[in-house]
Batch of 2 targets.
Target 1
Amino acid sequence: MAMPETQFAESHLVANTRADRIFDHMIAKLHSVPLETDPYCHYYGAGWFPDDFYADMLANFPDPKLYEPLNMRLYVRPDGESSRDQFHLTEDAIAKLPPKSQQVWRDLVDVVTRPEYRRATFAKLAPDLTKRFGISKDAVVDKACAYEVRLVRDTEDYKIKPHCDGLNKIVTTQFYLAPDMSQMDLGTSVYRRHKKLFGSSFEELKRFEFRPNSGYGFAVSDSRDKQSWHGRETLSNFKGVRNTLMVLFQQTSPNSYNGSPRTDKAAAEY
Ligand SMILES: [Fe+2]
């Protein structure tokens, strides 16, 4: 069951100056990045986090051994190793990290699960969300959600074909945690599908630059009129790690973040 939002919001009443500063920075960025509406509502920008906090995140990634393979069937290299691993930033998982790392990730989760952050994100992407859910902009902004907040490590040979994201997702956001400008080509692509007599082809409209401290967000759609096609070609000629942070606004989630609502997959939508 969803936790009443008032109760959820009260957990943020404890003063947290650094989180407040990060929150203000991210909200200002969200307001300033341009909204693109073609072929679906999305945005991309750089400078999402204050510089000092961005450096703290890069210096405090969990030990790679603590990450779990996302899907050994889909994301696997010829040598049998996983090419996409993730670390769910739940309170239980954060508690296992070195003490100096814990507050960094707690602050991050605190900020991105604030109701005000969700409202600002949904307001930004409202044109597509109002259509998808058949509700007014005010109702979109007030729509409750569950979360997935996870760190992701992609390595050599990772790829994901054009897809829309499942409709359990409302909004997908991903932050690129690049150490420098040497991985600029590793961003996500936005596609338009062209239907053909037999099957379809995908036109790559743009590829986000994998810049330090950058990120994108989009409204998930998968209707006849609109589909949020995106993907990533094989990370070839690439050695190393592509670190990102996924913040997913969902209808249901098996995981709770900072007291956010938790539902099992079978729970009714709310
Ligand atoms: Fe996706």
Note: The chain has a mean pLDDT of 88.
Target 2
Amino acid sequence: MAGSGYEIARFLYCSGLFEEEVAKAYSHMAEITVDMDVKCLLNYIADDSYKHAKMFKALSGYPVNVGKCGFENCEKVLGRLWRNITEYSSRILQESEINKHGLLKLIDGLEKFEGFVAEEYMTVLNVKTIEHMARETGLNIEPYEMIFEWIIEDEKRHEQILKVIKNLIVRSNNQP
Ligand SMILES: [Fe+2]
Ligand SMILES: [Fe+2]
């Protein structure tokens, strides 16, 4: 991902849309999950992701800096990550009920995403690039600086939460 401030703004905006897709997938999974603990943990990640979406959109300075960058253009901006999540999330949204085996499979897929996303954010959203973007676009990023780090920490936590969820499912599988 390259360097102009406006490109970074677009990256942030598309990351916002990306987080919305992720959030929808998680909250739908929570809805169709019967186990109350698993449901609660999935909703926790969904809420975090909605929160991330809002932050990213605000940070991109949308609509001033992003202009007409629509949904379709995000594939160009985020590449495979975008295609994968939109396909994956529409698959999840089609499910109306889910058994433990199916849930475990979906969680495996999402675990990979979370790791990938954390790395992607870490590479792109470092303070230097963001400062550069702020200079070019005139955006005031100061109030958000800390929040960036928190978002990256959240992503790492999501991975951990998914591991906990997997354990819960496996354990309940072994119960007589
Ligand atoms: Fe996120
Ligand atoms: Fe996440």
Note: Residues 13 and 57 are 5 Å apart (CA to CA).
